[in-house]
Structures are given as structure tokens and as C-alpha cells.
């Protein structure tokens, strides 16, 4: 690849190639992410008696990495840790966070087919310690490509300055994105399924 790709080009490639992954490939990548994420959380936060972790709930039939079983195991090992998830409302350009119990989740489907708690109890974003965001692509500088609506970029500005934004996805980090914007939030770390994204040359 001789020329850098834009966010939209990376997004299109990642979506097409994610849809083509076999169930076996998805399972192997998911296990790698769970393992790496568990080790990181234990190393960084294992001694803490309290922690607020934001995860996402995968869109049905989207092939997104599923963190619900991972969160259930974490909750079983750290009962005092708390979880929250994104919450969207029609007509609201910004997302909020809602309390979520991975061991007892009563969910409904919200805008963009995103699952969310049926009983909305808002989480104060300044109480969140870790935000784990789904990614389509992350470049070697930590710049994230999502679905292009900017929800996480805007939401992270409402969190504390020391919040830990973590990305998870299938693909290994790619060469730098060509059109990073000033408002794009850079991830602190990224865990991937070690699948290589095929990136043709765009000229």
C-alpha cells in the first residue's frame, strides 16, 4: 500500500471483510481479545475494590466482538466492580451511559438496532474509569474508526481527564489514517483479534 487511506475507506474495507469472517475466525479472534483484555484489567485494576467500566452491547447479526460473556466473568471475579453501557435516544445527537448488570441484563433494542437496558438508570460519566469501545479500525497512532457518527468522541469529552479509553476489534493496527480530525479521541490502548485487514492501494 503506497497511499494512506481515509476513515471512510478503512470503514468500508473493515465492514466488508468482517462480514466475510467465518464463525471459527470470529471465535478465535474473540478469545484473543478476551484473554488480552482480562490480563490488562487485572494488571491495571485488579487490586481495586471499586471500578466503573463502560462496555458496549453488540448489535445483533453485526459480527461485532461480544464482550458480554467477558463482562460476566469479570463481574463474577470482582463483584464490587460496576458496569455501564451506551444509551441512545431518538433525536438526541449524543449518547449517555446507563447502568448495566452483565449477570442480570434486561435489554431492549434502541436506535440503530443497538441493545440497551430496558430500565434506564443514567450513569454519571465522571464516575467512569474505563471505556471499552468497539472499533472497525485502529491505526498505529491509536486513532479509531467507528461507524462515523462520533458518539464516542463526544461522550469521552464528558468523562474525567484520566478515563482509560480502550478499543477492541478484529484487525491488527493499520497504517496511519489520512484524515484524522482534531476532535477524534485517541485510544490509550487497543486489543485485537490479530486478523490482518487487506488494504489495497488507493490512488
Features:
alpha/beta, Rossmann fold, 6-stranded mixed beta sheet
Describe the structure.
The protein is α/β, with parallel strands linked by helices. It has one domain (7-43, 51-195): NagB/RpiA/CoA transferase-like (Rossmann fold). It has four helices and ten strands, in the order ααβαβββββββαββ. The protein has helices at residues 7-19, 23-45, 68-77, 151-156, and strands spanning 52-54, 82-87, 96-100, 107-109, 115-117, 130-134, 137-138, 144-145, 164-171, 189-195. The strands form three sheets. A six-stranded mixed sheet has the order 3-2-1-6-9-10. The relative contact order is 0.22. The mean pLDDT is 94.
Q: Mean pLDDT across all residues, rounded?
A: 94
Low-confidence regions: none
Identify the CATH architecture.
3-Layer(aba) Sandwich
Distance between the termini: 10 Å
Tell me the series of helices and strands, N- to C-terminal: HHEHEEEEEEEHEE
Name of the level-1 CATH class: Alpha Beta
What structural class should be given to the helix and strand makeup?
alpha/beta
Portion in helices: 25-40%
What is the radius of gyration? 17 Å
Describe the secondary-structure layout:
Elements: H1 7-19, H2 23-45, E1 52-54, H3 68-77, E2 82-87, E3 96-100, E4 107-109, E5 115-117, E6 130-134, E7 137-138, E8 144-145, H4 151-156, E9 164-171, E10 189-195
Parallel strand pairs: 1-2, 1-6, 6-9, 9-10
Antiparallel strand pairs: 2-3, 4-5, 7-8
Amino acid at each position: 500500500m503506497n497511499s494512506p487511506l481515509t476513515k471512510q475507506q478503512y470503514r468500508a474495507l473493515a465492514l466488508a471483510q468482517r462480514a466475510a469472517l467465518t464463525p471459527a475466525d470470529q471465535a478465535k479472534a474473540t478469545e484473543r481479545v478476551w484473554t488480552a483484555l482480562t490480563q490488562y484489567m487485572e494488571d491495571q485494576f485488579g487490586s481495586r475494590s471499586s471500578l466503573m467500566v463502560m462496555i458496549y452491547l453488540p448489535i445483533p447479526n453485526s459480527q461485532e466482538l461480544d464482550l458480554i460473556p467477558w463482562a460476566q466473568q469479570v463481574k463474577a471475579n470482582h463483584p464490587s466492580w460496576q458496569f455501564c453501557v451506551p444509551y441512545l435516544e431518538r433525536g438526541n445527537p449524543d449518547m449517555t451511559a446507563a447502568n448495566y448488570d452483565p449477570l442480570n441484563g434486561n435489554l431492549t433494542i434502541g436506535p440503530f438496532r443497538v441493545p440497551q437496558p430496558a430500565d434506564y438508570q443514567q450513569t454519571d460519566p465522571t464516575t467512569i474509569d474505563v471505556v471499552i469501545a468497539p472499533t472497525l479500525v485502529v491505526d498505529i497512532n491509536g486513532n479509531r474508526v467507528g461507524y462515523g457518527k462520533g458518539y464516542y468522541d463526544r461522550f469521552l469529552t464528558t468523562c474525567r481527564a484520566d478515563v482509560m479509553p480502550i478499543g477492541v476489534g478484529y484487525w491488527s493496527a493499520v497504517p496511519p489514517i489520512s484524515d484524522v480530525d482534531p476532535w477524534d479521541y485517541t485510544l490509550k490502548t487497543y486489543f485485537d483479534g490479530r486478523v490482518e485487514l487487506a488494504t489495497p492501494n488507493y490512488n
